[in-house]
Specification:
The complex is a heterodimer of chains A (about 220) and B (about 220). With about 220 residues, chain A is an all-alpha fold. Chain A is flat, with a radius of gyration of 20 Å. The mean pLDDT of chain A is about 95. In chain A, about 80% of the residues lie in helices and about 0% in strands. Chain B is mostly helical. Chain B is about 80% helix and about 0% strand. The mean pLDDT of chain B is about 90. The chains are: A mainly alpha (about 220), B mainly alpha (about 220). The interface between A and B is large, with 45 and 44 residues.
């Protein structure tokens, strides 16, 4: 381990902890938001479904950086409230990744064949029971790879929070570099850390997918 | 005190926005060209018969994809600062190497989706390996991967906004400059996101149209 990293270990770890925390909270909230939007769009819920469709199109056409700017600078100015960089980043990430997750979930829901829904209904389940016990579990399994792709994407994207001043991993590393100036070592360390952690998230996704795969 | 929406200061600074738009387009196109070349080469190597070649391609894809784009850009801008590359070039290279890995995966899956018989037929007709790729495999694969490429390109355009962090005067950077002069915070950023939305929509629709299968491709795109 190079000296720069060893000497600033605690500071880097603190930044990494914020990155992990930000990612974990976003993954939880973003998945819930994505599920709600995706199901609403899939079921063509009146009004809410259309709002969801518009929202998803809007977010998917907007860069993440702009989303963070809107959440950190735009919305507080418009609605007169104070926020911290961390909270704004969290809001921006959830709103951002939620739209992508919604589309993945909708695709997963659509992949469940109509025959299964008919079978469920003819066995006397109510439509909401069919959704809950037949469609969602099957769709969830199929959607796991796409979902974990989004999680990996999100984990990488948290580095953008450094731009609005969140003291996460990238920001900590840049700060250390500003003090000791050792850009090659520091940037490569950051890259390798993200690489390892992203691979770990992908690995969990693959393991979960294999574990839940339907054995026939 | 109510916040009064006022878009006129933004209209007054439309020249800055247009300059930013031109830079964004230039950055996206130059990065796209390099990413396309990288994707074509690495993606084709990814379908090679030799296991070590395939492993090499997979390594490139994994390493490039799992590092944040921002870190890619900082790598060229700060870690390789002794090269004295202009910020635009650093942003372009970071964007190209990062997106190239995604293009490579799409190209690989596109080539993989063409039945093996096509390659055998080409070779049996006396074409060389690369001729078969060029005249038989690629044209068919391109049709299949067009929707995915459109979606990647729209990602690339949006990702180019990160170049503003290196002070490349593209759209997001100019928006920040206008915000600093006019304090119309919300209007500036909502306008910015709408410009990106229009840009991305135009690009994806054009590619989808060029691919000549507007209906089904649009459906696939919305799922991408």
């Amino acid at each position: 381990m190079p000296d720069v990293i060893v000497n600033n270990w605690a500071f880097l770890a603190q930044g990494l902890a914020i990155t992990v925390q930000l990612s974990a909270l976003t993954i939880l909230a973003g998945t819930v938001l994505g599920l709600a939007l995706g199901v609403a769009r899939f079921l063509r819920v009146p009004v809410f479904g259309q709002v969801a469709a518009f929202y998803i199109e809007f977010v998917r056409g907007t860069p993440l950086l702009v989303m963070l700017f809107i959440c950190y600078f735009g919305l507080p100015a418009l609605l007169h409230f104070h926020t911290t960089a961390y909270r704004a980043a969290l809001l921006g990430f959830v709103l951002f990744i939620g739209a992508y997750i919604a589309e993945d979930i909708r695709a997963g829901l659509r992949s469940v064949s109509a025959g299964l829904v008919q079978a469920g209904l003819s066995m006397g389940l109510t439509p909401s029971q069919v959704l809950r016990f037949v469609v969602l579990p099957l769709a969830f399994r199929r959607v796991i790879p796409a979902l974990f792709n989004q999680y990996v994407r999100l984990f990488k994207f948290t580095s953008v929070a450094s731009v609005i001043g969140v003291d996460e991993f990238t920001a900590s590393a840049l700060l250390i570099n500003a003090r000791v100036f050792s850009p090659v070592t520091i940037i490569l360390t950051v890259a390798v850390t993200y690489l390892v952690l992203c691979s770990a998230i992908s690995f969990v996704g693959r393991a979960l997918y294999a574990h839940l795969a339907v054995r026939t | 005190m109510e916040y009064q929406l006022n878009f006129t200061p933004i209209w007054e600074h439309r020249d800055l926005i247009l300059q930013g738009l031109a830079t964004t387009v230039a950055l996206s196109i130059s990065a796209l060209v390099i990413a396309g070349i990288i994707g074509l080469v690495i993606g084709s190597v990814g379908t090679a018969r030799s296991r070590s070649w395939r492993a090499g391609a997979a390594l490139y894809v994994e390493v490039m994809r799992n590092v944040p784009l921002l870190v890619h850009m900082y790598f060229w801008y700060m870690a390789l600062a002794f090269l004295q590359l202009p910020a635009f070039v650093c942003a372009m290279l970071g964007l190209a190497l990062y997106s190239g890995a995604y293009v490579a995966e799409v190209v690989r899956s596109g080539i993989g989706s063409i039945p093996n018989g096509q390659m055998q037929a080409g070779l049996a007709l006396g074409l060389r390996y690369f001729q078969t790729l060029r005249f038989v495999i690629y044209p068919q694969a391109l049709r299949i991967i067009a929707p995915s490429l459109a979606s990647l390109l729209s990602q690339l355009i949006k990702d180019s906004s990160l170049a503003s962090v290196l002070a490349v005067a593209e759209l997001a950077y100019q928006a920040g400059a206008i915000e600093g002069q006019t304090f119309r915070t919300f209007e500036v950023y909502i306008t910015l996101s709408l410009i990106y939305l229009v840009l991305v929509t135009i690009v994806t629709q054009t590619i989808t149209w060029l691919a000549g299968e507007s209906e089904s491709a649009a459906a696939q795109l919305s799922d991408a």
